[in-house]
Write a structure and sequence with these properties.
This protein is mainly beta. Helices cover 0% and strands 52% of the residues. It has no helices and eleven strands. The strands form two sheets. Strands 2, 4, 5, 6, 9, 10 and 11 form a seven-stranded mixed beta sheet that branches. It has a four-stranded antiparallel beta sheet with strand order 1-3-8-7, with no helix packed on it. A hairpin with a 4-residue loop joins strand 7 (68-73) and strand 8. The protein is globular, with a radius of gyration of 13 Å.
Amino acid sequence: QVQLVESGGGLVQAGGSLRLSCVASGRTFSTYARAWFRQAPGKEREFVAAITWSLGRTNYADSVKGRFTISRDNAKNTVYLQMNSLKPEDTAVYYCAAVMSTQWLSKSYDYWGQGTQVTVSS
């Protein structure tokens, strides 16, 4: 089992920045990749960004490319999401996720955090 705990959400004005953090505990040694997803009210959960744990390969949704950056600190078992130039449409609950297999681009992840709210005001 892997436990994931997100932090760093909050209220920010459009154009501002936030950095989300996700700390993992448990059987983290078998993690292949970690990712961020988000779910806005009335919408389905969508992929935001992912990073492979060993090589640090990254993948982003088109809607956040150039604005968001995913990174990791292996020693701290932590993944980050730096969000810049935030827009009201970025408002959502942001979830951290982990996948044990190599199918990190399939968006089908094994473990999920509880989520952290990000609200961007116009």
